[in-house]
């Protein structure tokens, strides 16, 4: 499966580089064959590839084999439509019924956008969603409609993170995201896991990608490590790594402060949405434990309701300039604002392609083979088109 026609794929610096458009075509073909509609397959492929483009490899195409496995096991359901459980003019609770997060997340956000544009503000609680991907997607999408937004997420059924001062898993990676629009410019987006590293970053490292920072994990005896293997334990032949299977745990960022924020994401994204927290009643969904899903509490605020969009944007620009005028703390250093690094990475990767560890790339090809994407279709996906 290494045809010479794959001109969109190259190897250098010990990694495989794939043109973004080519990778998007391949991932779309995989999910189309796996049982998703063409629209959903395209949606998932676009968002996963988009995460890699912005440097969020942990939430990118490396997720493809796991999504395919979840589909086969019935943990994800293709082409779901959210159910509105309760709503009023500014609020709603919606059930994603374990649909792809890229699909049900978009539906929930559309409801929030409509309400916020009508009323100035909206609060949407999304429960039982499949993996929502890079949460920054949702803040960017809202900003495109002149909405500032806040998103608080948990992962029910996923015990990965030890609390500050502990070694036992008691929480999920529980991301937080907020974004603001800027008139005529890209929005400013803050998006981070409340663990020191996202589980996907540990997966990337396990697959031969970027190593983890020192002390990212804690072992049962309290030893700190950067080795991702203790998160996954022994990986059986033919199985994709399971982050719930190992003896180690991820650590929260920022000592007690990050641990406290991680706790709050469980409360807001899990308990308040009705999804449930990562640790409550582990046997509630049967002998296999709780079914993994995301809960997300989103707040949307229409900037024009608060003040003139141009005035708001000018205030933000002035503050950005003020922040960046700080003297760097080291020679050659630079002060960056949220989202600035992602924009630079995106420009670079649109030119040079998405860098993947060889094992991660081979896993994606194996996922394609598993759902019977033909070699000819793989070749076609991974070849440059005339417009690229």
Work out the oligomeric state of the chains in this entry: single chain
Strand order of the largest sheet: 3-4-5-13-6-8-9
For the sheet with most strands, the description reads: 7 strands, mixed
The separation of the N and C termini measures: 22 Å
In sequence order, what are the helices and strands, one letter per element?
EEHHHEEHEHEEEEHEEHEHEHHHEHH
- Under CATH, the topology of the largest domain can be stated as Ribosomal Protein S8, Chain: A, domain 1
Q: How many domains, as an integer?
A: 3
Total count of helical runs of at least 4 residues:
13
Share in β-strands:
15-25%
What form results from the Cα inertia axes?
Answer: globular
CATH superfamily of the largest domain: Malate/L-lactate/L-sulpholactate dehydrogenase, NADPH binding domain
Number of strands: 14
Q: Which structural class fits the helix and strand makeup?
A: alpha+beta
Give the class-level CATH name of the largest domain: Alpha Beta
Low-confidence sequence ranges: 1-5
Looking at this protein, list some descriptive labels:
388 residues, 39% helix, Hypothetical Oxidoreductase Yiak, Chain: A, domain 1, 4-stranded mixed sheet, 3 domains, Ribosomal Protein S8, Chain: A, domain 1, disordered N terminus, alpha+beta
Task: Give an overview of the whole structure.
The chain is α+β, with helices and mostly antiparallel strands. It folds into three domains: 9-75 and 353-381, Malate/L-lactate/L-sulpholactate dehydrogenase, four-helix barrel (Hypothetical Oxidoreductase Yiak, Chain: A, domain 1, Orthogonal Bundle), CATH 1.10.1530; 83-195 and 252-304, Malate/L-lactate/L-sulpholactate dehydrogenase, NADPH binding domain (Ribosomal Protein S8, Chain: A, domain 1), CATH 3.30.1370; 210-251, no CATH class. It contains 13 helices and 14 strands. The protein has helices spanning 20-34, 38-53, 64-73, 101-119, 136-143, 199-206, 229-232, 255-272, 303-306, 309-324, 340-352, 358-370, 375-381; strands at residues 9-12, 15-18, 83-87, 91-95, 121-129, 147-156, 161-162, 176-182, 185-192, 217-218, 224-225, 249-251, 293-302, 354-356. It has a seven-stranded mixed sheet, sandwiched between helices. Helix 1 (20-34) packs antiparallel against helix 2 (38-53) and helix 1 (20-34) runs parallel beside helix 3 (64-73). The chain starts with 8 loop residues before the first strand and ends in a 7-residue tail after the last helix.
